[in-house]
Design goal:
Structural class: alpha/beta
Oligomer: single chain
Distance between the termini: 71 Å
Largest sheet: 6 strands, mixed
Order of helices and strands: EEHEEHHHEEHEEHHEHEHHHH
CATH class of the largest domain: Alpha Beta
Length: 269
């Protein structure tokens, strides 16, 4: 079987491509979960990586769960209720945990429909850029089920509780323009510009020191549930580490040179 998740690295940027376009990149098997976990672990272990871009091959980002498996009561929906609970915990729920714990910034390049678990997968990324063909649906309710993969946690953090409730309770499709208006994505571009726009953002991020990116992301993650005094204590400790790096020293000297050069150009003769 074709590898589901293609891992490509170009310098500090990793591109992960879901590569089952004939199945609309549906998330239906344990091997796909294994692919995601392995990729996330590989990123965390390689300190040269600074940014990850996630996208889908073909015209669909990801169609989410396999409705045929739901009909046949196979895959995650197989067995007694206790079995199904364990299927989710030991299966697809490993993806949000793996993605949440990626240490570097992540960008979803949403090339088409992101439905159900596919919508939630896009929300697991820190940033999202969509093509004009991108559309989103938190569609579980239309199948009489609920977001079993963490969507109820990720979606409100992306769009706010009111819009998240609207999407979860109606299951309606959100087209590209509305996705931009409500903050599901930060930018909409033409289909042929999607990867170049995503790469441009990744390259701008990757200009910065890798350790600072990883520490900053960790602080942002902790801010979602920490008290202010706890976060300030973590910030002080992380800052102490950052101040004693060669990257910091070089950046300070470069900034001083830039400021002094600007002053020299603007000073009167």
């Amino acid at each position: 079987m074709t590898e589901f998740l293609i891992f490509e690295q170009d310098g500090p940027v990793v591109i992960l491509t879901m590569n089952h376009p004939e199945k609309r990149n549906a998330l239906s098997g344990k091997y796909q979960v294994d692919n995601f976990e392995r990729a996330c672990r590989r990123v965390n272990e390689d300190t040269s990586v600074k940014v990850v871009i996630l996208t889908g091959a073909g015209k669909t980002f990801s169609a989410g769960g396999d409705i045929f498996a739901m009909r046949d009561k196979t895959g995650p929906s197989n067995g007694r209720p206790i079995d199904i609970r364990n299927n989710y915990r030991r299966g697809i729920q490993r993806i949000p945990l793996a993605f949440y714990n990626i240490e570097v910034p992540t960008i979803a390049a949403v090339n088409g429909a992101a439905v159900g678990a596919g919508c939630d997968l896009a929300m697991m990324c820190d940033m999202r850029i969509g093509s004009e063909e991108a559309k989103f649906a938190e569609s579980f309710v239309k199948l009489g089920i609920i977001p079993g993969d963490g969507g109820a946690w990720f979606l409100p953090r992306a769009v706010g509780i009111s819009k998240a409730c609207e999407m979860a309770f109606t299951g309606d499709m959100v087209e590209a323009a509305e996705a931009l208006a409500c903050g599901l994505v930060s930018k909409i571009v033409t289909a042929d510009q999607l990867m170049s726009a995503s790469r441009n953002l990744a390259d701008r991020i990757a200009l910065n020191p890798g350790h600072a990116l990883r520490l900053a992301k960790k602080l942002l993650r902790e801010s979602e549930h920490s008290r202010l005094d706890t976060l300030l204590e973590m910030s002080a400790a992380f800052q102490a580490l950052a101040h004693h790096t060669e990257d910091h020293d070089r950046a300070v000297l470069a900034m001083i040179d830039q400021v002094q050069g600007t002053k020299a150009k603007t000073s009167p003769p």
